[in-house]
Amino acid sequence: MQVLGAKELLEDVFQKDLCIGCGACVDLCPYFINYMGKTSQLFPCDLSQGRCYAYCPKAEVNLDELSNQIWGVAYDGSPLGNYQKVLAARAGKKMKGGSYQSGGTVSALVTFALLNHLIRAAALTDRQGLNPIPRLVKSADEVITCATSKFMASPTLAAINAAVREGYTGLGVVGTPCQLIAVTQMRANPVDKEDFVDPVALTVGLFCNWSLDTRQLMTLLSEKLDISTIRSMDIPPPPANIMVLETDAGKLELPLSEIKPLIPHTCFICPDMTSEYADVSVGMFEGRPGWNTLIVRSQKGAELVAQASDEGFLQIENLPEKNLKRLTRAAADKKQGALRTLQQRELLNNKEGQRSAVRIPPEVVDKILKEK
Ligand SMILES: Cc1cc2nc3c(=O)[nH]c(=O)nc-3n(C[C@H](O)[C@H](O)[C@H](O)COP(=O)(O)OP(=O)(O)OC[C@H]3O[C@@H](n4cnc5c(N)ncnc54)[C@H](O)[C@@H]3O)c2cc1C
Ligand code: SF4
Ligand code: SF4
Hints:
Layout: H1 6-14, E1 32-35, E2 38-41, H2 51-55, E3 61-62, H3 63-71, E4 85-91, H4 105-115, E5 121-128, E6 131-137, H5 158-165, E7 171-175, H6 177-186, E8 200-206, H7 214-222, E9 230-234, E10 242-247, E11 250-255, H8 256-259, E12 280-284, E13 292-296, H9 299-310, E14 314-318, H10 321-344, E15 358-359, H11 362-370
Parallel strand pairs: 3-15, 5-7, 7-8, 8-12
Antiparallel strand pairs: 1-2, 4-13, 4-14, 5-6, 9-10, 10-11, 12-13
């Protein structure tokens, strides 16, 4: 992993408009802050190596190193990454119910992990008005307050940095694929701290094709409704092609063509749709509302899913083959599109002193681009 400093982070990420506002560089030092989805530097820093650069999921990310670190195998570019099985899932009877995004699988797993002391606290995403905000949740009862998706880039990972400063270990984290890449880099102790302890005990990744710019979305929605009355948002699977907003006054449907211009450009260089470095990954279940698709990846993830299901916190079923095929195709399409954009923007595998956003072994790049 190439570890540089804040000066290079500005050059490689901010000046190229690649920051997604994940929060990995926020609350590490007094210099970086996030306000309404945008991360910025308050004062210059001249350290030649910093955790800000090392953690960032948009600067010198080496997918082969990440794969070896987490799975002990080389990165092979397979569409869904490393996994044991893919299931259909939803929250079980032991969950008290509430408003989930789809099946509540994420909330159920985090609740179960907290109740059984598998984690001490979890970095989740709450919202203040429409603005997504990081929240360190310490008790199972609080998990539901962060349920539902905020379809905007969120500085969630600042909660991990703040928790580590308070001495926390044994943290759970729920995040998008870019956030899970940052978390994987955090766990590698990239600046060789002598007293380093891996602060993370459980990673729950979300599926993500794109997110929206918080401030631009607020501006767009403010022209149409009182945004303080928004209760939840949903982007149903294709072919719906709409965003649905639930407000105190009822439902509002917006065509995706109106909101897609608000996708940050950095989402188009993102090669991971399913959070490939998580213990488990969760997304929607196309064609079955109220359920999730659940990818079980690590042994820890498999044990968590088995225990949560045995004890009634999770309901699991087999995922129909046609859904797995569709998911695999969608993830492969995202990878191919991202690699083409990375190549066009000269952000992939640069040589001779030129830095890159992403590094992937060249033979794997060829394989991904040829995949039909
Ligand atoms: C930006 C974004 C894009 C997504 N795109 C897709 C997609 O293309 N296809 C797909 O199948 N699924 C997508 N999802 C995932 C999907 O919306 C659900 O989060 C997932 O299916 C889990 O549902 P659930 O009922 O188990 O979640 P719940 O039990 O309701 O829990 C939701 C969890 O998501 C976390 N969360 C909410 N907003 C954010 C955020 N902005 N950043 C990080 N964490 C957050 C909360 O902390 C909470 O723990 C996306 C989610 C986000 C946030
Ligand atoms: S770590 Fe996250 S918030 Fe910080 S510069 Fe990188 S993408 Fe932006
Ligand atoms: S598309 Fe990638 S970069 Fe954009 S929010 Fe999703 S995971 Fe992050």
